[in-house]
Amino acid sequence: MSQLSLAFNASLLVQDDQGRYLPATAEQILEEARRVIDLKTQRGEAFTSPELVKEYLITKLAGFEHEVFAALFLDAKHQLIQYVEMFRGSIDSASVYPREVVKEALHRNAAAVIFAHNHPSGNPEPSQADKTLTQRLKEALTLVEVRSLDHIVVGGRQTVSFAERGLI
Fold first, then answer.
1. Stretch 88-103: mean pLDDT, rounded?
2. Is 0.85 topped by the overall pTM?
3. What mean pLDDT do residues 106-111 have?
4. Spatial separation of the C-alpha atoms in residues 87 and 117, rounded to whole Å
5. Which of 21, 65, 102, 144 could be bridged to 13 by S-S, CB 3.0 to 4.6 A?
6. How many helices (H) and strands (E) does the chain have?
């Protein structure tokens, strides 16, 4: 993995299909970390600060070698309804369809949404395409009375918040 290097004094082990314990791969460790963060942040969890959202999204999106576009669907009190990885792309882009985001928001009965995606390059600076997409998503969701609170780009352990930069 280009952005992640793990070193251990003692190996972490995983059990295979035959019951043998083998050293875990970096991908297995990341997948387990994502599962644990899902258990820690359950439905109804309130995102009370931008830092909490950023840490959650770093845990969910850092380490992928391809772009992933996700959405945090929230209720009227900004409590988590569901984190959904909606689109998967290549190393430097992902196709995102506003219609599908609107459908998912309505299906989840969301009052608000936070968009997120990763940059496998490690540079969290939003591109012009990211800015244009965010505006299109915001316009589409406004039509169905769902607020777009933020779009956070994750690059390694760094993030850029559109809301903090006045871009949303």
1. 94
2. no
3. 97
4. 9
5. 21
6. 4, 7
The encoded tokens of residue 141 equal 């969701």
| 65 to 4, 42, 95, 152: CA distances (angstroms) | 10, 26, 16, 18
CA dihedral angle for residue 133, residue 138, residue 139, residue 142, rounded to 10 degrees: 160
Confidence of residue 1 (pLDDT cuts 50, 70, 90): very low
Phi, psi of 56 (to 5 degrees): -60, -45
Distance, in Å, from the CA atom of 137 to the CA atom of 39, rounded to the nearest integer, reads 29
C-alpha pair distances (Å), 49 with each of 55, 82, 133, 143: 10, 17, 24, 27
- Measure the CA–CA gap between 158 and 106, rounded to whole angstroms: 31
* Amino acid type, 45: E
Mean pLDDT for 81-108 is 95
CATH for the 44-161 domain, from 3.40.50.800, 3.40.190.10, 3.40.50.2300, 3.40.140.10: 3.40.140.10
Secondary structure class of 116 (helix, strand, coil):
strand
Q: Say which residue the tokens 């309804």 belong to.
A: 81
Per residue in 38-87, pLDDT tens?
555 555 667 778 888 999 999 999 889 999 999 999 999 999 999 999 99
